[in-house]
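ingest -> validate -> predict -> emit
validate: passed (alphabet ok, no gaps, 227 aa)
predict: started
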Amino acid sequence: MGYGVTFRVWGDYACFTRPELKVEKVSYDMMTASAAKGILESVYWKPAIRWIIDEIHVINEIKFTNVRRNEVSEVLKLSQVKGAMNRNVPLYIDAPGKRHQRASMILTDVEYVIRAHFELNLDKCGETDTKEKHYNIAVRRLKKGQYFSAPFLGTREFGANFELIEGEKDIPKSHLEGEKDLGYMLYDLDYKLSEDKKRSEVSPKYIRAILNDGILDFRKIRDEVAE
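emit:
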């Protein structure tokens, strides 16, 4: 019995932000592996399992559009919230005074097919945690459109629709043909404790994203990333 899932994701807009561009947001040409993993975890997440992305199919043509949005330049800190609660005083951000207009280059009319599987985190498994159990729950939630938190396409304002694909013949064909080099793309963030074990250090991992007939196969490049 296989423990992989295949499902379709689509939406009107998406923004898979390039980390090297901080102020003006610019999206990658397609969904990243971490974004695909985030959608799966929003549908079904448990400490006992770890989702691994195998393939992402880019179904629609890659199209960009430019938008301008009003954003505020600061966020409320936890210490401010606790202080306001203790003193019983109003807490707010002066939006007119902190507002900035920023441009974003985002994707439009996106559709993807994601193929993934999971592995058990043995150190976090209980006696009742089995692959069959978690697989059946995940498939049932994907089939019914259930989720723990609303899935989104890169940023929370761009909600994602999803549905389970149960047969190979039901996988839509990509509109992209041949080989297409999308350049370097963020694959994942590796969190490790520092040598003094007092703080967490983040190390980004990048891949060379090359589509073949609209498909990015992570199984072929996973070993290279792990090196």
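Residues 131-144 form the longest helix (14 residues).
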